[in-house]
Amino acid sequence: MKNRIGAAARLCGALCVFVGAGVAGAAPVDTARLNNAADEPGNWMTHGGTYQEQRFSRLDQIDQDNVADLGLAWSVRLDIDRGVEATPIVVDGVMYTTSAFSIVYAFDAKTGELLWEYDPEVAKTAARDGCCGPVNRGVAVYEGKVFVGAFDGRLIALDADSGDEVWSVNTLIDTDRSQTITGAPRVVKGRVIIGNGGAEMGVRGYITAYDADTGKQAWRFFTVPGDPSKPAESKAMAMARKTWFGDKYWKQGGGGTVWDSMAYDPKLDLLYIGVGNASLWNRQARSEGKGDNLFVASIVAIRPETGEYVWHYQQTPGDQWDFTSTQTITLADLEIDGKTRPVLMQAPKNGFYYVIDRTNGELISAETYVPVNWAKRIDLKTGRPVVDMEKADWTKGPKLMMPGPLGGHNWMPMSYNPQTGLAYIPAQIAPALLEPDNEATWQGRGTLQLGTQPVALPEDAKARAEIVNMYRGKLLAWDPVAQREVWSHDYPTIWNGGTLSTAGGLVFQGTANGEVRAYAADDGELLWRSPANTGVMAGPVTYRVDGEQYVTFMAGWGGVFPTAFGGLAANTQVEPRARVLTYKLGGKARLPDEPKRVQAIEADIPANEADADTIAQGRDLFNVHCGVCHGFSAYSGGVVPNLRNMSAATHDDFLRIVAGGTRIKQGMPSFADRLSQQQIETIHAYLIKRQHDLAAEAEDDAAPR
């Protein structure tokens, strides 16, 4: 593995020692500090700021009166221009963060000087093993170590002072499946806890705890049952088996991956995990159309020392809409009906905002925060959704779903401000048409398997534009007690960044259109904005060094929306420039001037000689095998090469690239293990047709009006 020591650390040499969390004399982050992280607002010691995951800071030096004076303090360009989703951890003047392909950085949080860099050397070809790009959401820091989950499934412990590898374990249970890690680990009571991703690729979900000192596995909690011919791994799995039907689900994986959200209550000693969607999406093909399919689309409470099941609440029983419950889990104490109640809050993909008693999983309230058509309401007596089968059951024919699989809220973290009593949600309007493939089965490693017809976007420019305009983003201030919107700001597209709220009365957020912003937390007035020169998705953090408050945004466009759904990201007009952007009052630094890349339309295109049937076959093959990276219907969002604009040399070498792996070093794997030469040539014919479409669109745009 590659480790690079920065100039600041080299100059330090024998004159200073980085101890524990990073500076001379600093105490290491231990259980006591993590339990009481709110008492150290100058640091950002865990993923959500504290175990409560509120993403609220008590710092108030930057406030509504002076935020207009915020300026860039420092910025750093990261190694790879792919999606940046990390929440930095900042401890005693040192910032630890990650970029694409799980590269870890340690910076001086005041100056941006690189202290060290660690590259786990994830194979660039591994990008096809995930649904949503080789992203990473950050690290955990504990007792002098930095922990990162690598995209290829390793959990790695690094020395916090030097970045040297201390231990590494393989978390995967099946190397024949496309399991990945994109989430940030958490450390609870000396155990490093990490889940996995890959439900769309046919993976069985689980979450695992490892000893922070040694990397030895402490426990593993499966979220869906496995092979029914073998004993159930736990009482929870024995219970779950009763909710699945047929013999397909375990062969297809089942899904239920714990790929992002967790929260911990030290008083109750409960770890709350958010469980993902079912696999296949199609319950007819997955579970004979029956059963709740525990524990998909659920929040589960477990004991962090043993992994013992305590309770669960399933938000979407029998999920068949990709309605993950992996969005931010936030803990708070709310006054409800005259009583203070310990609650857990979440705005999951399915469009309902949930307030749940975190002691026992009892549902308190649930109301829609975005337009919803799959369910009429949540029955507060049973806790179950009242599903509108006429609108929701797409296994019998195509249905336009609200929300679609991108959700009313995706992974971008929400925040909660106990001073205003409001949650700030990066909400979105993102419908989708789902069509059944009721005979679907698992198709092998690295292939989307959903139980739907191959995902496609209209190839007619006007029809696509109409769909693009249906997708809208919204910063939503939500009152969780009254279950109502207090204020909101609309955005022209989805995939806007996570939020941070502060005691200075502010809400910070980056946007898909390439800005960073601050709003008044009470009434939503826009108080500050600054260009980021790329789309911003990650949740910002704030911290204090030498008496000054800083705000950091991890910036860099990518993820599933601008790659797989690049054809819907046309309203963003940003490029994937990966950076760390850090601001303070009176900051004078400037972003480098980076003009937009302009790519001329290739004129030398092979003749379009394929018949309609071949083009249709090529479209389906492309969308199943290639669309998740290069964009469904070959619409590129600009993150990976645009295959509607291939050069003559690329056309000439197409078979050798796709089957022979001649561009493996650039991250393009060989598909010889899953596509025949004839299928590759059929895909090529489709792309030639799409390149002619692009040329015709450009000619039409240039025509005088």
Tell me what you see in this structure:
Helix 9 crosses helix 13 (677-702). The strands form eleven sheets. Strands 1-7-6-5-4 form a five-stranded antiparallel β-sheet. It has a five-stranded mixed β-sheet with strand order 2-34-35-36-37, with no helix packed on it. The protein has 13 helices and 40 strands. 14% of the residues lie in helices and 29% in strands. By secondary structure, it is an alpha+beta fold.
Layout of helices and strands:
Layout: E1 2-5, H1 7-12, H2 31-35, E2 56-57, E3 70-77, E4 89-91, E5 94-98, E6 104-108, E7 114-119, E8 140-142, E9 145-149, E10 154-159, E11 165-170, E12 186-188, E13 191-194, E14 206-211, E15 217-222, H3 235-241, H4 249-252, E16 254-255, E17 262-265, E18 270-274, E19 278-279, H5 283-287, E20 298-302, E21 309-314, E22 330-336, E23 339-346, E24 352-357, E25 363-368, E26 375-378, E27 385-387, H6 389-392, E28 399-401, E29 415-417, E30 422-429, E31 432-434, H7 461-468, E32 472-479, E33 484-491, E34 499-502, E35 506-510, E36 515-520, E37 526-531, E38 541-545, E39 548-555, H8 560-563, E40 579-585, H9 612-625, H10 627-630, H11 648-652, H12 654-658, H13 677-702
Parallel strand pairs: 2-34
Antiparallel strand pairs: 1-7, 3-40, 4-5, 5-6, 6-7, 8-9, 9-10, 10-11, 12-13, 13-14, 14-15, 16-19, 17-18, 18-20, 20-21, 22-23, 23-24, 24-25, 26-27, 28-31, 29-30, 30-32, 32-33, 34-35, 35-36, 36-37, 38-39, 39-40
Features:
705 residues, alpha+beta, Methanol Dehydrogenase, Chain A, Cytochrome Bc1 Complex, Chain D, domain 2, 2 domains, five-stranded antiparallel beta sheet, five-stranded mixed beta sheet, 13 helices, 40 strands
